[in-house]
Amino acid sequence: MKFADALKKVPTSIHFSSYVDETASLCTWQVPRAHELESWGDAQSLTGVYSVQQPLIAPLWGGRSDIEVLGKLAGLPNWRGYDIVQATVDERGIRGEIAWRQLLNKGVAPSTFGTVTAGLAARDADVANALKQLGEPAPLGDSFEAAFIADPKLFDGRFANNQWLLEMPDPMTRITWDNAAMLAPSTAKELGVKNGDIIRLSKGDASIDIVAWMQPGVAARSVILPLGWGRTLAGSNGNKKGFDVYPLRSSASPHYLAGVKLEKLDVRRYPISQTQEHDVMEGRPIAIEATLDEYKDKPNFPEFESPDPAYGPLWKTQDYSQGNQWGMLIDLNTCTGCSTCVIACQAENNVPVVGKDQVARGREMHWLRIDRYYVGESEDEPDVAFQPIACQHCEEAPCENVCPVAATSHSPEGLNDIAYNRCIGTRYCMNNCPYKVRRFNFLNFNQEVPETRQMGMNPNVTVRFRGVVEKCTYCVQRIQMAKIKAKTQGRRELREGEVVVACQQACSTNSIVFGDLNNPKSAISRRYRADRSYGLLSEIGTRPRTRFLGKIRNPNPEMKTVKA
Q: pTM score, two decimals?
């Protein structure tokens, strides 16, 4: 659309945004926009539930919310967000100071205001007719089809300055701090393209240069291009990260572009930082799965692949008859690999961002990672399995036996604890951990942290210093807070669901369950010993406290299924 060129011709332009970005640089005025966490507002769900949005903090940079700007333009005498929301609440019949306070306390109105269903029903007949009119796709010949997708981390680029998202591995490629043009492995081999090669995609006068990446599951002679990267004024973190694919995209064909020419450039290879280089399990029983028929035949199928050791404990076991015994269960059947739990853990535990170079050295600091494995014999059409991995809090933890200063030990409640003040960074525990879930602070990532970033840190979790090992703690701070709350209420026992760890709270598919194994009525107790429950690498005798539910696939019997 050549929007930038058209905007330059406008004599007076006003940009209303929280950031001085590429569009703002072309405008004559910049109006600071308040963040949604700094703004008053309201919302109504499709089912008619009315809710008030309350700010968590006053605007840091004097920004105004959307409704305040609209109210000012509309000439409202009381244009402040608080006044506008209160007037809207009053119009809905929630009147008086007491009713207002009750609404703020509960967050939602006591009654609904009608459902919103108009236009939401799918018109199946119209959809079917539209598909029939598409006809057969035109043959590509020697050209390619480019598909533009919203990046799973940065979306369309609006989150390009977020360090957490920049460093979060892509759910499929496991690439951090970059995007790439994804090609089918068969297509890449045909063209002689390898991971890290620079390719040029062009159609007409438009062209882009971008790094190539072989991605199983991509259709032959197709190129997948994630949007949102390569920005120039995103901010100090997001500037010039990745490759901008927008120049190849047109308003006439915003999602797919046929007839694209692809050529490999004879230039130096581009360095890519990836957190997982092993794409398959090599026959090891890690992300265990079975078909529905196999599950019906052997409901306890994981036991045959990852059995508990025949010998008993090597050391004296902990007595959990008193107090709590914490455990976690992760259902591989419902995990989608979205990595929301990874970011939740990072936010909760003040896990630092280390940058592309350190990730390339294998020094990422995420306490929780998502392993992605391809299953099957076809490179172009594999199945995929995701498995969240954090500290397994082993009952016979190999790390505890080798620490020369006793910095890591077993708690009376089953947690694998670590005392940062005792750790001297020998990293024996990291070498002895079969799950590779411990992280070492090579650099002082938290030195001279800006004040605004410090405001976003969790005050209940210490900020670790350079030279110590750190890992998942089962959010021990949340356990302690729940205990303190129970004590103030005169209770000796915690209620079911009173302790919710960060990854569990953020999981949109409820794949993660955490709780007290000593409570026979808890959700974790009911599912912990299910028929498809197993401990990761149980055969080596670590007796991990985190367990998994094996994945079950139900393939269409009319389709050929090849299992690795």
A: 0.87
